[in-house]
Each structure stands twice: as C-alpha cells, then as structure tokens.
Write a structure and sequence with these properties.
The structure is a single chain. This protein is of the alpha/beta class and 317 residues long. It is 42% helix and 17% strand. The two termini are 37 Å apart.
C-alpha cells in the first residue's frame, strides 16, 4: 500500500463512523482513510460509494481494510461498540464495550504505536480511560470526544435564543459526556461579553425569566441525544462534524482549545479518570488540560460527574 499521510483509520463504521468518514472526505484533511468494521461487505460498498466523490474533493485514498492496513496511521478514531438504545443511559453500555475494546486496542497499538487515539464510543469517558490503560500510551495521546458535541449544542441554543451567530458564542459543557454533565454559565460569553452581562442587553430579556431560560437551554442540551435517538434511532451528523473539528486541531497542530475528554489528575482533588475540561489540542494530542476556575456550584457539579464515573470504573476496569 502506498504510504500517504495524513492517514486516518476508523474502527467501527456504523452510522457515526460513516458520517465522520463522509465529513472527513469533504474536509480534505486526510490523504488516506482506512475503514474497519465487522461487516466487511457493507464497508466495501461504502468505500465504492465514497470513492465516487473523487471529482469533487481533495485527493484521498479510501480502503476497506483489516487492522494490518492501519499501519502507520497518524490518527485512529474508534466508534466501534454497541449503540445506545431508547431510554438507555450511556453508562449502561459500559461493560460490553469495555470487552470490545480489549480486542480492538491491542491491535491498533501493534500496527500504529505512534498514532493518536480518538475515542468516540459511549460511555466515552470510561472507554477513553479504558483505552488509555489498555494501550499503555501516554495519556496525552488518548483523547475522548468528550463534550465537544454537547458544547456545540449549547452554543447553538444560546445563539438561537439571543439571535446571534453561534461562532460568537463561547461557552462550555463540562464533566461527563452524559447525565451528570453541566454548563459553565459563569464564564459563558457572547462577543466578548459575559453572558450574565449580555442578558440585560438582549432583546428577549422581558420574554422569559432569566434563571428559567438558562435551565431550559441546558435541559434541551442534556436531553438532545435522547430526543434524537427516540425520533430517528441514532445521533450521527453532529458528532461526525465534531470529530472533524478535533481531527483538524490534531493534524493542523492548531493548539485549539476544545472540551475533549482527557486524563484528570489533581484537579479539584480528582485523579485517574477521564472527564471533559477545556484542553489545548495539537499534533501531540492533548498538550495541556486547562484547570479552569469554577464557581462553587460548578465545582460541585464537576465532582458529582467524577463520582458517577468513579463508581463505574471500579466495577469494570
């Protein structure tokens, strides 16, 4: 096989994996994409389909492969695992998916020992930690997609309410990618203005009580995945583009600040677990986790997230 770089391998090519692959082809970030899935016949069809986009995109070689074909990947993105069912929490998925990872991770490390691992499978924080332990790689080289998508949903809904471009909203969902996640309202900003200072200027300030509106926005963020799953069976478009955003930060060595899931060790007395905080992401993976100053209620929310993850880790890892 011709050695083309950047090379990205995707393990698990269901709805999420293929939405990412499609968005990746459109982005022009990769010169070679390797797709791995237990249903080899289907991904051979996906490769044929994607390959026919060649006249409209940057040059990229796409193959349906095995683990040996992932050799010398720059980035390996793992979406493989059992999917979340209607009414099922992300944490309910953990035991089966950890067993799947015990088979996947050694194969990846064997063929691409220097690759950055980007974990997407839910529950992503626990499986990112599992991948870190199973791979024996430095923690900076094992990243979870974390609350990047939750944060995008958050910014979209704030922007929608305030009638501004989402690009001008800076706000984060932190902690677990799941039921114990929380919004960092204390440092949310619109156009460089703290949200709490922007609200009195907002044209909608008289139409809804301030605290109620904040709660409504976060409730919609937190329950978006459950609503989408109930209505269409899976979430994929948003996460596909969120993964491309993380990919760009890595391949372009951007030093981008993203709320990925990374190893927390010493923040607020929390150690040895993966959770989402704003982190500097570049070609080395997570260059630095930013130990951001939270207000007391946010500190407690982060500790609650940590406790939720800790209980599960004890039972499965």
């Amino acid at each position: 096989m011709q050695n083309l770089s950047p090379k990205i391998s995707i393990v698990g090519c269901g709805n999420v994996g293929m939405r990412y692959a499609y968005a990746l082809v459109l982005s022009g970030l990769a010169r070679q994409i390797v797709l791995i899935d237990k249903d080899r016949k289907r991904i051979e069809g996906e490769v044929l389909d994607l390959s026919h986009t060649a006249p409209y995109v940057s040059p990229v070689e796409i193959i349906a492969g095995d683990y040996s074909d992932t050799k010398d990947s720059n980035l390996v993105v793992i979406t493989a695992g059992k999917k979340q069912e209607v009414g099922q929490s992300r944490l309910d998925l953990v035991k089966d998916n950890v067993e799947i990872f015990k088979k996947i991770i050694p194969e990846i490390v064997k063929h691409s020992p220097n690759a950055i691992l980007l974990i997407v499978t839910n529950p992503v924080d626990i499986l990112s930690y599992a991948a870190y332990k199973l791979s024996s790689k430095p923690s900076k080289e094992v990243i979870g997609s974390g609350t990047v998508l939750d944060t995008a949903r958050f910014r979209f809904l704030i922007a929608k309410h305030c009638g501004v471009d989402p690009h001008n909203v800076h706000a984060y969902i932190l902690g677990e990618h799941g039921d114990s996640e929380f919004p960092m309202w204390s440092k949310a900003m619109i156009g460089g203005i703290l949200f709490k200072e922007y609200c009195p200027m907002c044209s909608k300030r008289d139409s809804c009580p301030h605290n109620k509106q904040l709660n409504d926005i976060f409730f919609e963020v937190k329950n978006s995945a459950y609503e989408i799953i109930e209505k269409k069976g899976e979430t994929s478009h948003g996460i596909g583009l969120a993964l491309v955003r993380i990919t760009r930060a890595i391949l372009h060595d951007e030093n981008a600040i993203l709320p990925v899931s990374s190893l927390i060790d010493g923040y607020l007395g929390i150690n040895e677990m993966y959770l989402s905080l704003p982190s500097i992401v570049n070609k080395n993976g997570v260059q630095q986790v930013l130990w951001i100053k939270l207000v007391p209620e946010e500190e407690q929310a982060f500790k609650t997230s940590a406790e939720a993850i800790k209980k599960v880790i004890k039972n499965v890892i």
